[in-house]
Specification:
The chain is an alpha/beta fold and 339 residues long. It has helices at 42-48, 98-101, 142-145, 151-162, 177-189, 202-210, 238-245, 273-277, 291-303, 318-326, and strands spanning 2-3, 16-17, 30-39, 59-60, 65-72, 84-87, 90-92, 112-113, 125-129, 133-135, 169-173, 194-198, 215-217, 227-232, 247-255, 282-285, 310-314, 333-337. Strands 3, 5, 6, 9, 10, 17 and 18 form a seven-stranded mixed beta sheet that branches. Helix 10 links the parallel strand 17 (310-314) and strand 18 (333-337). It is globular, with a radius of gyration of 20 Å. One zinc ion (ZN) binds at residues 93-94, 97, 99-100, 105, 108, 110.
């Protein structure tokens, strides 16, 4: 399923076209992967609509990829044919800048993203540098493993940046694929931390309570207690302002979004310095993922285990899955099944 041009999903409800491409060939230190599942992520909407546009078109989107190694390039020795691997948003980084050397390769200037800067997983085959593929534990099916690679890994990173401690209160504003995995992680790692969820849709709020949130309300509701940290996974601005209002002094808001949409940007005019920011409140964004986030999270997810709630679609229904994501018809994580 190929993206040929940047467009608005309002005007073009089928931005991706089913196309036959030649099989890619693994270069030195690369592997060829036969794809069986690929998660659908909100970032694909940002790519299609041009908020984080692919540098070259056409491109194959998709960065939560699970499949088996089909072939190996010259000097690629990490995996054997037939082994199951996963591929995440980080496709490659330079490997020698200060960021890369400190394990902060997600901030590398040469950071390349799967399914944006290189062809991704909405396809039957893709190639990837072998050092940027991960072994998938047996406890997961292919479709269950897919959303762990982005929603889970970036959720893990955002939880780390939120710096939540036992007994503290964590807020989640927005309750899609990433947030529901964060909630499962918190339940396991900090069983006495309380999670408060803000979501516009009643379905999402009910889902959050089912999974163990102590409270769920609408975006502009005031939580019954002040919160130590809040993770925002929405594409909008209203949740940012409203979240700051729920933070305790010294609290931190972590924005886990690659881009924000402009639709409600004027809501920022409601930002009131003493109410929302003073008392040493912090705002921090999450950018990309490092390999460490992906591999540590997959290990943790297998240990807990975190089995994500998924909805499967055939590859050729990718447009439908993306539109449902845009219209927030969400329960768990959407996954394309490639046969
Ligand atoms: Zn993603
Ligand atoms: Zn680098």
């Amino acid at each position: 399923m190929v993206l040929n041009e940047i467009c608005s999903l309002k005007e073009n409800r089928s931005p991706l076209q089913l196309t036959t491409l030649p099989n890619p060939f693994p270069k030195e230190k690369e592997i060829l992967v036969k794809i069986s599942a690929c998660g659908v992520c909100h970032t694909e909407l940002d790519e299609i609509e041009g908020r984080t546009p692919p540098p070259q078109l056409p491109v194959v989107l998709g960065h939560q990829v699970v499949g088996t190694v089909k072939d190996t390039g010259l000097n690629a020795n990490r995996y054997k044919a037939g082994e199951r691997v996963g591929i995440a948003w980080i496709y490659s980084a330079c490997g020698h800048c200060d960021f890369c050397q400190q394990g902060e390769e997600n901030l590398c200037e040469a950071f390349q993203a799967t399914g944006r800067d290189a062809n991704g997983g909405y396809a039957e085959y893709m190639t990837v540098p072998e050092d940027f593929a991960y072994k998938i534990p047996d406890v997961f099916t292919d479709s269950q493993a897919a959303p762990l690679l982005c929603a889970g890994a970036i959720g893990y990173r955002s939880l780390r940046l939120a710096n939540i401690k036992d007994g503290q209160n964590l807020g989640l504003t927005g309750f899609g694929a990433s947030a529901h995995l964060v909630l499962k992680m918190v339940n396991y790692r900090h069983s006495d931390a309380k999670v408060f969820v803000f979501a516009r849709s009643e379905k999402e709020r009910d889902f959050a309570l089912e999974l163990g949130a102590v409270w769920a309300g609408n975006t502009e509701d005031k939580a019954p207690e002040m919160l130590d940290a809040i993770i925002d996974t929405t594409p909008a601005w209203k949740p940012v302002v409203e979240a700051l209002n729920n933070l305790r002094p010294g609290g931190r808001l972590v924005i886990n979004a690659i881009r924000k949409e402009d639709r409600d940007k004027d809501y920022l005019m409601k930002l009131d310095y003493p109410e929302h920011l003073w008392m040493e409140k912090e705002i921090k964004s999450v950018a990309n993922v490092a390999r460490k986030d992906v591999s540590e999270f997959i290990k943790l997810a297998a240990e807990i285990p975190i089995i994500p709630e998924i909805e499967e679609y055939p590859l050729e229904s990718a447009n439908e899955a993306l539109l449902e994501l845009k219209e927030r018809k969400i329960r768990g994580a959407k996954v394309l099944k490639i046969v």
